[in-house]
Design brief:
The chain is mainly alpha-helical. The protein is built from 15 helices and no strands.
């Protein structure tokens, strides 16, 4: 396990959750194709990190083994598929439903960590995850009963969000394995670079243009990179070196709560009583799981 960092990992997770909570709102405010928005989000997140990686971490980059490079590549492809599916889901269903379902990843992370990484899942962590997932279900039920689940094809959008959750789980698991040996900046540059190229391929296959967007769209692209990108996912990758993958993953369940609040403020999507109760249950599950530590 890595030495104790100067900033407590739990504090870093709080910053990351706050940052990623605004991502769905920015995507909904964008009129650009979802794959284009995802591409520029990752591209603008990666570009500032490249010179830092080659200036301060050149030796670490050169020392990355083929095995770790292979896993980093898989992680980058999984991240690209996560973004592509989730961004598209926001065009078909509500913010609350999409963000809640995409955070179903702890179910897959815990199973994968147990099977692949031999991580121990304590009874307290299992209960915490079950509580958090139950809260997610309550939020979704609130959307259904309260009429917030609005979109041209809600079931299709929900399915895309759930697929995005599976891909996010693969991304988290690969990161947990590699980050024990590779420094943060070299790791994210490789992963984000692969993710950027994968999203570029998706954009080109779909036939979308990369230019011709108004200044407001470019502001949204930059906002997605600085907020959810640099302050969100990059901080999550840093935390993966100090906390178990299941703890990091379940902490991200705070995103549906934050996104639901922001959707109410900026998109006039009013949360139902079930949504508010579900959000409280999610937070309880996060607290229960995140306070558990390896013995």
């Amino acid at each position: 396990m890595s030495t104790d960092p100067r900033v407590p990992p739990v504090v870093g997770l709080v910053v990351a959750v706050a940052a990623v909570s605004g991502g769905a709102i920015l995507v909904r405010l964008s009129d650009a194709p979802s794959s284009v928005a995802a591409f520029y989000r990752v591209l603008f997140t990666t570009l500032p990190l490249v010179p830092v990686a080659f200036w301060r971490y050149r030796a670490q980059l050169a020392g990355v083994t083929r095995r770790d490079l292979g896993f980093a590549t898989l992680s980058g492809v999984a991240l690209a598929l996560h973004f592509a599916a989730w961004f598209e889901s926001l065009a078909w269903t509500s913010v609350a439903a999409s963000v809640t379902l995409v955070q179903a990843q702890p179910v897959f992370v815990v199973l994968g960590a147990w099977l692949l990484l031999r991580e121990r899942v304590t009874s307290r962590m299992a209960i915490g995850i079950a509580v958090a997932v139950s809260g997610m279900a309550a939020m979704s039920l609130g959307d259904l009963l309260g009429g917030v689940l609005i979109g041209p094809r809600p079931l299709y959008g929900n399915g895309l969000a759930l697929f995005g959750a599976v891909m996010a789980a693969g991304y988290v698991l690969a990161g947990r394995s590699i980050r024990q040996r590779v420094a943060l900046v070299p790791y994210v540059v490789v992963v984000y670079g692969v993710c950027t190229l994968s999203l570029l391929a998706i954009v080109l296959v779909e036939g979308h243009g990369l230019t011709g967007y108004p200044p407001s769209e470019w502001a949204i692209f930059v906002g997605l990179a600085v907020g959810p990108g640099l302050l969100g996912h990059t901080v999550v990758n840093w935390a993966l070196a100090h906390l178990e993958s299941s703890v990091v993953s379940v902490s991200l369940l705070g995103e549906p709560v934050g996104a639901t609040v922001l959707a109410f403020l900026f998109l006039s999507e009013s949360p139902t009583t079930f949504t508010l109760i579900g959000g409280a249950i999610v937070l309880a599950g996060i607290a229960l799981t995140a306070t558990e530590r390896e013995t």
